[in-house]
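Q: Could you fold this chain for me?
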Amino acid sequence: MIIYLLAIASPTHAVPADLYYTGWAGESKAAIDYRKNWSNTEERERYSNGHSYEGIKLDVGVGSGGPLFFAHYSYMGFDPHFRDRYTDYFENNRNVALINLNYCVRNPKHYKGYGANCWGLTASDGSSGYGAHAPNPEDDDGTMTPTGALASFPYTPDASMAALKHFYRDLGRPAMGCIWSARCF
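A: Sure. Below is the predicted structure, expressed as structure tokens.
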């Protein structure tokens, strides 16, 4: 998303604004094919979503929200307080984080350590190498990445602070200094 927004806003080499809706937010066959393997859910191909996961509606995004970095990286350089024809991105990103949190609290695969203070499924290295860990059974291998919950502070300040305190106070240096697997607790 950030690439499209920066290109549209370029003072010297701007692209047409409608490219955003035919490219990044496109619903054409080419756009659907491009997103085809982004998530292990039936809703993975469309930019608009409209489904509920963990009791929370997701306006846009792949499957159940995908790895948390989808809600983080474009907004490191762009304020998420904006709307387009699909959604309010701050609220949508909050919903992505809440879906992730609620999935980890529900813990359908019964991983040791998952819960309200230990959440944050996002892309990272894990016991099986690099993976795009997400709140769905196919993309959840038990790898919990502290940066997922911590980078969600703008969207879930209380839950992110609870995770930070747990990572620091209860788990200590291993949790704060590296990426680790919740199966190791």
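A (continued): The beta strands are 48-53, 56-60, 123-126, 129-132, 143-144, 180-181.
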